[in-house]
Design brief:
Layout lengths: L2 H4 L15 E3 L2 E3 L2 H12 L5 H4 L22 H7 E4 L4 E6 L6 H8 L1 H4 L3 E7 L4 E6 L6 H10 L19 H23 L1 H4 L7 H25 L1 H17 L7 H20 L7 H19 L18 E4 L2 E4 L8 E4 L9 E3 L3 E5 L10 E4 L3 E2 L4 E3 L3 E5 L27 H28 L4 H11 L3 H20 L2 E3 L2 H7 L4 E4 L6 E11 L5 H11 L5 H10 L6 E7 L3 E6 L2 E6 L16 E5 L2 E12 L3 H9 L3 E5 L7 H4 L8 E2 L4 H13 L4 E5 L5 H6 L2 E6 L11 E4 L6 H34 L5 H29 L4
Parallel strand pairs: 17-24, 17-26, 24-25, 26-27, 27-28
Antiparallel strand pairs: 1-2, 3-4, 4-6, 5-6, 7-8, 7-9, 9-15, 10-13, 10-15, 11-12, 11-14, 16-28, 18-23, 19-20, 20-21, 21-22, 22-23
Length: 801
Amino acid sequence: MTLNETKIACYHCGDECADSPIVLEEKHFCCHGCKTVYEILQDNNLCSYYDLNQHAGVSLKAANFSGKYDYLSDDTIQAQLLDFQSDTINKVTLFIPAIHCSSCVWLLENFNKIQLGVFTARLNFLKKELSLSYDPSKVSLQTIVELLATLGYEPLINLQSAEHQPKQNKVQRRLILQIGVVGFCMGNVMLLSFPEYFKLDLNNLVDATYQRFFLYLNFLLSLPVFFFGASDYLRGAFISLRENIQKKTNVLSVDIPIALGISALFIRSTFETFVNHSAGYWDSLAGLVFFLLTGKWVQQVTYNYLSFERNYKSYFPLAVKVKNGYKNVSELQKGDIIDIHNQELIPADSILLSERGYIDYSFVTGESEPIKKEKGELIYAGGRLIGERASLTVQKQVSQSYLTELWNNDAFKKEKKTVTTDLANAFSKYFTYVTLVIATITGIYWYFNNPALVWSSITAVLMVACPCALTLSMPFTMNTTMGIFGRNKFFVKNQAVIQLLTEINQVVFDKTGTLTENKNGQLHFEDGQLNDEEKNWVGQLAAQSVHPLSKMIYKHLGIGKGNISYFDEIKGMGIEGVVDGNFIRLGNAEYLGLAAGGVRTSQVNVEINREYRGYFTIKADYRKNWKEVLKQLKGNFKMALVSGDNDEEKENLSPFFDKGRLLFNQKPQDKLNFIKQEQEAGYHVLMIGDGLNDAGALRQSNVGIALSEDVQAFSPACDAILDASMFSRLTDFLKFSKIALTIVKASFVLSVVYNFIGIGWAVSGQLSPVMAAIFMPLSSLSVVLFAVGMTYLFARIKKLI
């Protein structure tokens, strides 16, 4: 039985040990990196890490951190990252995308036991942030970051991470404070209202005294409820009325009927307390405001640990090597000479000083073929260097480079409009008018029939006719939908995105990395033939390299027995070696001295004993079930594809897209312009892409979905992030968005029914405080339970949970 058939799993990360495994204490490891991590944990008595979760570690096969974090030794760069700095203690917060399980939490919170000089380590699992305090005289930030990277928890440090953001949004913090204050007051008001609930004997002097005291105490507790808890609704209603008067419009916000109900409750309860010395509606007031604030908080809650808003600062390194040390990328000036290493992004438009360089522009253009650049040629920002280190002369500041022009487009400066959010305002407009008419008719009726009931009946109508159920159904339904989507690895930015998804009538795709996979591809050998022995030699040589193309060749061919007596690799060019006495070279056309004309730079040419034998080509694999997804979408939406790649796959893709809407060799600005043209033609566009080259189109579209292999590590500016593994369920998410909006509308109907019953009761003038305290929370709760329950029911029917 061969090794591949036994499928031995790495003890640390769980990856298959496809090569001869490294064995230590009867434990198998896929690479020396995983073995090193195990030894570090063993030396510090922290192997309980593996008891919490089997194969909990992160694969380190391609890890190479040599020199990567040298810039952290620069005091100026270091100061930009630190939260606090002194002679005896430094504090820093690092974002670590690789955190994924309880073992990660346990290990990182015990980091101080691994690294001498670290005082404390605290982890925020949801935000994937590790907060460290350490002694700068005993350990440096560079040493800490390099050790974390060695353990498989490489921090994400970029230009944006140096800009310290407030830890918590002030608006969100104020809302939480409002909920806390109102919740405290509500609980105490309900407790002090027990005499009313149980109808204590008011002829008893002691009971009457306590009852009077409780009434006044309820009034005091209700002051912060009204003036602090309900202040946003009162202010919103005032602003809406003022704008209607100034602009002579007739658009009433949903805050107006809410403010009417809250004000009626406060005024009526104050009158009852101080004039009639009887029970008011203080518990109903506190309960109503508490439910409204809770719904508002639910509406604001989103996946804060994901980043939906990104600009160029999210992708560029914090610093680059210059002549006299390191320099912050944002401070680069024209004329600065910078050194860029293999796989690093070029942060500014620059002239190449080195003899040659291979630049991968797929990050910017979507074109998957690396481009060869000669000395003196201009290289645009956003290109990724492939191969040996290169020196460049900066031509433009980072903020003025080709890549950053994308963020100067108007699409990034305006907020997207949600048409369906007007539904609530339209409802409240008529709701307010109808309520005022009913209150007026009620007052007139009782004025002529029983004047004593005029005041109580009018205020009762205004109190009961509050669209609180209306304002609660939307956030609770949409938030539940967000949670269901999140379970299925589809993360939406906010509730408005779900509503926007229901309006989509055109879907636009990118190709590279969206319809095709970034990590996998089909390998073909062309222009020649290799026998089994030669395949073994080539596979053995390829196994010695960590380059992605070499790894694909090795995986495709496999290896047997053989002796490698010589090996050398020139990064970005190729590899050579002697296997069983045979001299073999693998690499690009230039490396093998072939004519470059018409030869693709991603071809891996093969030479055995100085004889050219052919070349390997890699054709990107399409995502699983991609044809089924496109067929389903085409039945309901207009379909288009805009790709920065060449048109090699045009024939294969044409059956799934509308005629004339299959566009290739598109620049980022071209993609954005296409989306804009479609919108001007009346389409509501959903754009699905994966790279920075799609950022403008994603932002311009009505809804932009970023498809990502790793939702934590990368996503361009977008409205939603879809894990690539869930691509096949895209149509299910679009359909369920419409179901969610239907549930909201059904909740509106239920709210109307409750208001009809309540108003009918209030018109009679017989609405007592006790009955109001029961009826009003019951109506709100039932609408919330209906909305949440129906959402879960349909999610189960659609097999989303």
